[in-house]
Design goal:
Keywords: Signal. The chain is mainly beta. The chain contains 3 helices and 16 strands. The strands form 5 sheets. The protein has a 4-stranded mixed beta sheet with strand order 1-16-14-15, with no helix packed on it. It has a 4-stranded mixed beta sheet with strand order 3-2-5-9, with no helix packed on it. A hairpin with a 5-residue loop joins strand 12 and strand 13. The protein is elongated, with a radius of gyration of 24 Å. About 8% of the residues have low confidence.
Length: 260
């Protein structure tokens, strides 16, 4: 059996490293998420940290702020007796840059303004976080919000800047990345340790790779294991799938090739 290993190299692109945003749920006895919104990108994580009492982080729609969204995420009720060093949490993985609306499903909490959003439009948009919160209060509450919610003002859009950061992984590897960010954004966090993805080439006499596709991160490796008969692993372009990249590239790209 012959194996060919391909390493996925680090390149300088925006958003190479994901960010984790901690959001306190009901901290200090307040019926509020703190902060009340985050601006996040695909691959980022929103970490809801639950404080004493019994709250949820439940996805809804803008038009029905206090009604669980079908197939949306829901932490379920998470009762917490006292403040401690190991407060329970719930992770939401950001898939795109569309707005995500969230509320606490505990009776009466949403109607008092206990809502949250990922990537909400800024005021004066009719779909701003302020409008979402006001709709929650108007349709499901007593007409008064908690003090924490009542003092909220949607800030202006952030000013984007180019930033460079160096991150050290658990294995001691050091990565430097340049990305677009804004003031107040958490520093990049180390990515997970590299994974080796094994691909079988021509297994059981079939003319195929197994699996046929994977999702890999920077630093991962792909090991192609060749089974009986004579095959190659050759990089191509999308428009010329059956020709080596080196023979079709107009920018000098060579691409990898295992050879026969």
């Amino acid at each position: 059996m012959y194996a060919f290993t391909l390493g996925l190299l680090l390149v300088t692109v925006p958003g190479v490293l994901s960010a984790t945003y901690d959001v306190a749920v009901g901290a200090g006895g307040n019926l509020a998420f703190d902060p009340q919104y985050v601006t996040a990108y695909p691959g980022d994580v929103v970490n809801f940290v639950f404080h004493p009492k019994n709250h949820t982080a439940t996805q809804s729609s803008f038009n029905q702020p206090c009604v669980p969204l079908a197939e949306g995420f829901n932490s379920g009720f998470i009762p917490v007796a006292t403040e401690n060093d190991s407060l329970p949490n719930y992770h939401f993985h950001v898939m795109d840059t569309n707005p995500v609306w969230v509320f606490c499903q505990q009776t009466g909490h949403c109607g008092k303004g206990m809502v949250f959003a990922v990537n909400p439009p800024a005021d004066p948009s009719p779909n701003s976080l302020k409008a979402f919160q006001e709709l929650a209060i108007a349709t499901n509450g007593t007409g008064s919000s908690s003090s924490a919610a009542g003092t909220y003002t949607t800030p202006p859009a952030p000013e984007w800047q180019t930033a460079t950061a160096t991150v050290t992984g658990a294995s001691g590897s050091v990565w430097t990345t340049t990305y677009t960010s804004y003031d107040g954004t958490p520093s990049p966090t180390p990515a997970a340790e590299p994974i080796d993805h094994k691909i079988i080439v021509g297994g059981d006499g079939k003319l195929e790779y197994s699996p046929a596709n994977i999702s890999a991160a920077i630093g991962d490796t792909v090991t192609f294991e060749f089974r009986p008969k004579n095959h190659t692993v050759t990089q191509s372009s999308f428009l010329n799938p059956c020709k080596a990249l080196a023979s079709t590239s107009t920018t000098g790209q060579v691409g990898f090739k295992s050879g026969l």
